[in-house]
């Protein structure tokens, strides 16, 4: 009987679950999605819903508990937290009941190390940035393999060689590129869920600085004030890809979602990386700049900088960023995971 796998998703946004769903659907063996899944669309998935382990009575959560006496191999291990205790117990019960061949951990140092204690092989997801702190290194060391959900060309220069050697570079785990659509004269600005969103006065200043272009802004925008006629604030839209497909230039942060979208549609890209832990966006943006795949400006530009940035962005060769997209990335990743799980079944 073919043994199944588990895919643990941390509660850092819908992107982790979307990645798990895409690959799980392509796997030839059963896959259980594990995590705190309330509020997410899990239709059609086999799930193990876990109690919440975030700080009690505190909505803010950065993945660390701040305890000075915490073991150095861990990021988050609060004491006397009933949700965390029940969470780990439920994972252990699932392992004892199902005997999984492999657990994909996306992402949690603690779950990766706990799985090792439960004698379950792991494939630990490694996000972009410099993750050379002791907890991350111990998670990577404990893993049978490491999975990078981005192309190898975007990896950081400071990644230790032994980590690279264990890494499977899956590429962007998105679907195939959309059918080519005739581009317009428009600039499309995308703000995702993980950042601060857009500032209405700053967007208005940018649009006024480049009045010969129509600007479409997708995602959250705060602030007030008048906006020029060439600026359109759409808020959340269900068809982000459709807007991007017609863009002459895409403007967005350095998160996985927008970078993957730019690559999938081979869009000229102005990348404005935001501060993130471990330099996740800034290191990815630096790699894009080295490749000539994007124009990069850290932080939101002053109004006077926009005409030059737009001109530089429009001069990019879109084939460079398009070359970072693999239409078979999800299928290839599923095959690699299945092969890794199968290697443990034979032992």
UniProtKB/TrEMBL annotation:
Give the UniProt keywords, A-Z.
Answer: Transferase
> Which one of the record's GO molecular function terms can you name?
transferase activity
The keyword Transferase is annotated on this UniProt entry:
yes
Q: Does the keyword Transferase apply?
A: yes
Q: Which Gene3D superfamilies match?
A: Glycogen Phosphorylase B
Per its record, how is this protein called by name?
A: Predicted glycosyl transferase
Organism per entry? Methylobacterium phyllostachyos
